[in-house]
Amino acid sequence: MEHTKQFSSEALFTHLEKRSKSDTSLVGTLRRSLMFEPGTDARTFPLIESWTHGCRNRDRGTVYLAAGLWAQVVRQGRGKPVSFPEAMVSVRRRTKSDSIEKRFTTLLDSDPDELRWRLRSALTLIASQGIALDWQQLLNDMLRWHHHHRPVQTKWAQIFWDVPQESMAEN
Fold first, then answer.
1. Rounded Cα gap, residues 72 and 106, in angstroms
2. Among 46, 104, 132, 163, which is most buried by a count of CB atoms within 10 Å?
3. Which CATH class is domain 9-170?
């Protein structure tokens, strides 16, 4: 019986971080891949394809997208990594901008195809504030974005608008 390697977002980002220290072209190649439909830039195949084993076909592009987004902002984050909604809360507190809530609400309403563009913009904003992201959690959330009952969007909304933990447990 042949053993199939299962997908691990933690292993992917650990690998990318380690490899980017010795392969300076990795970040640039992944960043450039954002100009293409996720998972179609042949230059990224040697970097990411082996990490998509165990992924459903529709999730393959999401893995490529997450790697490209990581490359876009990875060197700008500092400190302990936080979840995407926690990072947006920090941005809202730091900038005191009314547009952050609108941007976040629009992102929550995104379908999977729109998500790539809206995330890219939001991640640039987060990186400009020097906030480090939990990439493993972000990718796992991206992989579940399409679910019918929208558990990721609900969780993100609860974090952003600070719903008490007791209420989250009840839901």
1. 21
2. 104
3. mainly alpha
The DSSP secondary structure of 9-75, one letter per residue, reads HHHHHHHHHHHHHH-THHHHHHHHGGGS-TT--GGGHHHHGGGGTT--HHHHHHHHHHHHHHHHHGG
**Per the structure block, which two tokens stand in for 93?**
């507190």
Owner of token pair 């977002």: 9
Tokens of 108: 């929550």
Look-up: residue for tokens 């876009």? 72
Strand partners of residue 82: 133
Residue 67: both structure tokens together: 């790697």
Alpha carbons 167 and 71: distance in angstroms, whole number: 36
Give the tokens for residue 15.
């690998």
Residue 118 makes CB contacts below 8 A (sequence gap 6+) with 103, 106, 107, 110
Q: pLDDT tens-digit profile of 110-132?
A: 998 899 999 999 999 999 999 99
Residue 30 Cα to chain centre, angstroms: 14
Distance CA 66, CA 132 (A): 15
| Phi, psi of 41, deg, nearest 5 | -80, 110
What's the pLDDT tens digit per position in 51-70? 998 788 889 999 999 999 99
